[in-house]
Amino acid sequence: MDALLIALLGCLLGEIGDKGQWLTLALAQRFRRDGAVIAGIVAAAVANAAIGAAAGAFLMRMLGSDARLLFLALALIFLGGGMLWPVGRPDPLANWRLGPFLTTALGLFILGFGGGAQFLILGIAVRTADPLLAAAGGAMGIVAATAPVVLLRERLFKMLPISVIRRGGGILVLLIGLAAAVSALNLG
Q1: CA distance 173 to 176
Q2: Which parts of the chain span the membrane according to its record (predicted)?
Q3: Torsion over CA of 164, 166, 172 and 176, rounded to 10 degrees?
Q4: Residue 76 host element (H or E)
Q5: Residue that wins the pLDDT comparison between 87 and 54
Q6: Residue 136 and residue 12 in contact, taking contact as beta carbons nearer than 8 Å
Q7: DSSP 95
Q8: Number of Cα atoms under 13 Å in the Cβ half of residue 127
Q9: What is the pLDDT of residues 57-114, one digit of tens each?
């Protein structure tokens, strides 16, 4: 159950104000087909979470306990650092003529591949040895952060203090990652 909750909260926090939300806003405004865009979000989130969890399931067998904790620590440090990095708006995929579902699913899948959320899911799957719960929690967190953009559009970015959430969350995640790294390296 830890894997589910940590992945859900970590991915939710990591996705707020990130490129996935900005791309979703552009696609929601372009297509005006909320159901298809949300379905694309879900498809991309599930696919990226499954890949991260599968990689974690593969790697966990090769690593000892301290190495698995260090792997999770690196994932947290990577996510926290990414949250502190300025976010540029992604290409709105204006030339893609695949329709709202495929454009959203493929665009968000490509954007999220190798990103902080996917790496966090991988790290949680490695550490907890529960890749299914890590994938489920991560996908839910990504969807929970991204789907409201479709429904609220620009209002969401005006309602939430995005820069404060990203900076505060980034510092928190970075500190947790550093503490886990200290513990994994037996420095504390």
Answers
A1: 5
A2: 36-60, 67-85, 105-125, 132-152, 164-187
A3: 180
A4: helix 65-84
A5: 54
A6: no
A7: T
A8: 26
A9: 999 999 999 999 999 999 999 999 999 999 888 888 889 889 999 999 999 999 999 9
